[in-house]
């Protein structure tokens, strides 16, 4: 019974792998848009992982954690508004999702680097808001 179940899932796995491989050689707009969304999701996942690490380090500093939450909410609002503006020249066009998602990805990757910096602060660095471990 398990073998039948696994064989039944094989086409789904192959389709998923084929879809992922399409991003390397995407030639149509729909695929490029989909790939851009996937890249943004990956960057956002990394950002969320780092955010959780930072909030864990701030568990003994509720005021700092509150400031981080506010800063992150403000940053998300900025990122979304900036990317809407950045892509506004192609609003309504088929390339809009690509331009918008690429902008989100670029800004998210920059925020990821900022968060990585917070997590690497040397012991005693008074300018760093995240305590070293």
TrEMBL record:
The keyword Signal applies. Residues 23-113 form the Lysozyme inhibitor LprI-like N-terminal domain. Pfam families: LprI. InterPro entries: LprI-like_N. Residues 1-20 form the signal peptide. Keywords: Signal. PANTHER family: PERIPLASMIC PROTEIN, PERIPLASMIC PROTEIN-RELATED. This is Lysozyme inhibitor LprI-like N-terminal domain-containing protein. It comes from Pseudomonas fluorescens.
């Amino acid at each position: 019974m398990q073998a039948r179940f696994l064989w039944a899932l094989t086409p789904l796995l192959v389709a998923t792998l084929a879809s992922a491989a399409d991003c390397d050689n995407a030639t149509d707009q729909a695929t490029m848009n989909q790939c851009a969304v996937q890249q943004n999701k990956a960057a956002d996942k990394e950002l969320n992982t780092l955010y959780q690490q930072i909030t864990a380090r701030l568990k003994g500093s509720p005021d700092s954690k509150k400031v981080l939450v506010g800063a992150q909410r403000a940053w998300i609002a900025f990122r979304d508004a900036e990317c809407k503006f950045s892509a506004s020249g192609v609003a309504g066009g088929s390339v809009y999702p690509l331009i918008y998602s690429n902008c989100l990805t670029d800004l998210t990757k920059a925020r990821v680097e900022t968060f990585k910096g917070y997590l690497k602060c040397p012991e005693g660095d008074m300018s760093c808001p995240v305590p070293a471990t």
